[in-house]
Specification:
- The structure is a single chain.
- This protein is of the alpha/beta class.
- The protein has a single domain, classed as Vaccinia Virus protein VP39 (Rossmann fold), CATH 3.40.50.
- It is built from 10 helices and 8 strands.
- Strands 1, 2, 3, 4, 5, 6, 7 and 8 form an 8-stranded mixed sheet that branches.
- α4 links the parallel β2 and β3.
- Bound molecules: S-adenosyl-L-homocysteine.
- S-adenosyl-L-homocysteine binds next to α1, α3 and β2.
Length: 277
């Protein structure tokens, strides 16, 4: 069933924004990776791939970007852009003009710095905005990217309708999202508890896309290529954080072990397109 109304436990964009403000500051202070940092899972092409976690996160960006069919000068909207690392990478590699939005003010500030440092200020820009209500004119982009931001959206259908509206006819959306491999009770779902996120059943996606007026292009279950090695790497990183036990908020954000201990979480890559008129 397509989602029509926000679920009762839906994430609240302002709260998600504050969570990412906090994570961005913590990441800069504690991990020392305030610049050039991808806030998404890694992608390993197979069990023998020897990419590091950081390299594998860039690999996921590339796996998605190649599906956007961007030419030089194409206009790309990156919905939920994090600190801007994917936008900068794609701009460099394709020559596209990239606009990134996120709900977190701190992320946007860091993304601006990153574009500046990369010497790409004319080609890449960032803005604090809510994907539920995109501040752009109809048909103003050739492609839309959403790397791991859909899980934070209160209403996926509404975001997809917004994406369709700002896309030119024939333009593509490429996104990743988490899905449930089994049905946990909402109260015990590890992602809901740790990251202000929800998951959808995999089988619902085609209907959610159709209801938003998008044509289905491709849907891939990339759980094996991403989830086990990414969460193992995140659990290792979390050990170095030395968070104070009383900092329950931060303890809660950095809890990859809660995901490793279950096999509930699946990861999905979706490509869709706005029909030609
Ligand atoms: N795509 C980035 C960041 C992924 S983390 C990367 O791959 O590095 C999820 C991102 O979604 C964060 O930047 C967060 O600010 C953004 N986000 C969450 N809810 C949002 C909303 N309602 N509107 C816009 N961005 C949102």
């Amino acid at each position: 069933m397509a989602e029509r109304v926000p679920a009762p436990n839906a994430p609240v964009p302002e709260e998600v924004g504050r969570m990412y403000d906090r994570m961005t500051l913590l990441g800069a202070d504690l991990l020392g990776n305030g610049h050039g940092y991808n806030a998404h899972l890694g992608y390993w092409d197979g069990p023998h791939s020897e990419l590091t976690y950081d390299q594998a996160t860039d690999r996921l960006t590339d796996v998605m970007a190649q599906r956007l069919r961007l030419g030089s000068g194409a206009r790309l909207l990156d919905v939920g852009c994090g600190v801007g690392a994917p936008a900068v990478r794609i701009a460099r590699r394709t020559g596209a003009e990239v606009t990134g939005i996120a709900v977190s003010r701190e992320q946007i500030a860091r993304a601006d710095e990153l574009a500046h440092t990369a010497g790409l200020r004319g080609q890449v820009s960032f803005r604090q905005a809510d994907a539920m209500d995109l501040p752009y004119a109809d048909a103003s982009f050739d492609a839309v990217l959403a790397i791991e931001s859909m899980p934070h959206m209160p209403d996926r259908g509404r975001v997809l309708r917004e994406m369709r509206r700002v896309l030119r006819p024939g333009g593509r959306v490429v996104l990743t999202d988490f899905f449930r491999r089994r049905s946990p009770s909402p109260a015990t779902h590890p992602l809901r508890q740790t990251m202000g996120s929800t998951t959808v059943p995999l089988d619902d996606y085609p209907a959610i896309l159709r209801a938003a007026g998008l044509e289905f292009v491709e849907m891939l279950d990339i759980t094996e290529e991403t989830v086990p090695r990414s969460f193992a790497a995140l659990a290792e990183q979390a050990k170095d954080l030395h968070l104070a036990p009383e900092d329950t908020e931060a303890q809660c954000y950095f809890n990859p072990q809660a995901v490793i201990d279950t096999d509930l979480l699946g990861y999905l890559l979706v490509a869709a397109r706005r029909p030609r008129d």
